[in-house]
Amino acid sequence: MVCACPKNYAYKTYISASGEIKSVCKVRGITLNYSASQLVNFEKIKDMILCKKDDESVIVRTENKIKRKKIDGGVHLISESEDKTYRVSFLKRRSLNNNTSIPFGYINAR
Question: pLDDT by residue (tens digit) across 23-43?
Fold first, then answer.
C-alpha cells in the first residue's frame, strides 16, 4: 500500500483463487478512466514517493468532461476538456529517510 496524501492511495491484492495480482488506485479529484489510470497508477505513485522529487507532477487531461455553467441567469450543461495536475503532497507531515512520516512538532519521547 502506498499513500501520497490524504484521500490518495493505491494498493495491490493477491487473489488466491485465480493467482492474479489486482491493483486498486484511488485519487481524490481525478476521474480514473482508462487513459488516466495509465498515467496515475500504483507504480507511478510509488515512484513519486520513493524518489522524493518535489517538482514532479503528472498532468491528466480529460477530453469530454460534462460541467455545469451559469449562462444568462440559467444553468447549462456543457462538455469541455479539463486538465488536472497530480503531485505528491506532504503539507502536514515530515518525511523521514526510512520512508515513514511523522507529524510536524513531534518529539520522540525517550
Answer: 999 998 888 888 888 999 899
For residue range 62-98, list pLDDT tens digits in order.
888 888 988 888 999 999 998 999 888 776 777 777 7
Bridge partners for 74 per DSSP: 71
The whole-model pTM stands at 0.70
In a 10 Å sphere around its CB, with 0-12 CB exposed, 13-18 middle and 19+ buried, how is residue 2 labelled? buried
Q: Are 77 and 97 in contact (CB under 8 A)?
A: no
The span from the CA of 57 to the CA of 46, in Å, is 13
Where do the structural domains in the chain lie, given as residue ranges?
2-88
Name residues whose C-beta falls within 8 Å of residue 51's C-beta, 6 or more positions apart in sequence: none
CB 32 within 8 A of CB 25: yes
Decide: 68 and 77 in contact? Cβ < 8 Å.
yes
d(CA 106, CA 76): 50
